Amino acid sequence: MNMNQAKAAAQAKYPVSKVIxxxxxxxxxxxxxxxIPPFGGITEVGMNVLGVFLGVIYGYCTCEIAWPSILGFVAxxxxxxxxxxxxxxxxxxxxxxxxxxxxxxxxxxxSEFGFSKWFVRWSLSRKVFKGKPIVYIWCFLVIFGLSAVxxxxxxxxxxxxxxxxxxxxxxxxxKNSKFVYAGFTGIMLACTAGDSLIPYTSWKLGLAxxxxxxxxxxxxxxxFGLMTTLIFLLAITxxxxxxxxxxxxxxxxxxxxxxxxxPEETKHLRPRAKRVFxxxxxxxxxxxxxxxxxxxxxxxxxxxxxxxxxxMYAICAVILMILPSGEGDGKACxxxxxxxxxxxxxxxxxxxxTCITLASAVTKADYGISAWLSGVFQPLFGSSSKWVTxxxxxxxxxxxxxxxxxxxxxxAMIPIVAPFVIASGLNPVVACVAVVFMVQQGYxxxxxxxxxxxxxxxxMIPDMKERVKFAGFGTLLIFLSGVLxxxxxxxxxx
Length: 494
Fold this sequence. Notes:
3 domains; 0% strand
């Protein structure tokens, strides 16, 4: 055996580090809560649930996505919180899981049939963007980020990831390059922040109303939206401008790229892509219109309450499986047997199922974990200074939402924060933005939110350290932008 052969044989050995990380993952999932006594008011079941959550996150960081997710099902079922049957149902029965599968099919089909490459060619060929990568990326993130106000985040995010992957491929960037991480992180940052600009629907509105009740006054949603939009624009601008000097992202290939190098077929949309696009956009428009309709409207009830977004995207996917392609091949636009393998990101599906369920369980009042965390954070609100109160009111929810459910932590933080806001004299609308907006900006860990789970499971960005670095940088910019904008508004409003 020569030296090269010996080296190859050595490299082929199963890594010891993988065995160690796997053992730690399994220990946390099954033994953490059974060998470490409860503390801080956390119950025995709460300790088990916390261990499962920590084990899953550790497994994602050091091993892979699939088996920690699947084993997380088992560990949760044995934690004492639920039966095995109920645990599996809770995880796989979430609407976001079903919606993700259908969204991957519908949005993925657009990329599969050339829409993404057509869009890349069309957008990069605009004179305003030629040789100006900063301008292009900024417009890309701002336009699609603002659209998240009315377009549900998950399908939008899935579509934009496919588009950015084609941008990277067209320009010659490799998978796992910093350019890909920058784009994917920017998309998550923009979509999540855009979705949070105005709390006018579902649990976001509930958090705003809970805050109103806690401080004893109405929250001006127009003023709320003005402040959050300025935070959004400032954070995105800073993110794009700092990609090259801070994160060392190479933009030269995008800057020098000539769209004429793209294949001839990218000049026009093929019939199949046109039909997929039309069906997809009709679905999006119906969801938007239904949201804007007054309460009691039959369409609003049908779409929002009965079908939900999951049902709408399911119908969208089914229509694509029935609708003729228009290309004379005797086939439908979408063939599940042929396309599902490439279009559905099963890592994302399992990560969403596991992380969202566990994040909700971690913050369940019965287990004492959220109460313990609230107690840990509460001493930080001891200052009577308006500015200090503002910083802490923004920082604590931002940190908390990286760990667990933004709904649960938002609800838990409000009764803690409100008395200190009133005592300090901080403007209640400013403080409301600090809490309600910031608690939705969870990116750093997969359990932070469904957009975060989809982001962290994407195979174009496999390096956990790089994902956390980019996501952490985006989180920092959101926080700093928030403190700056809110400080100015508090000075103006008094």
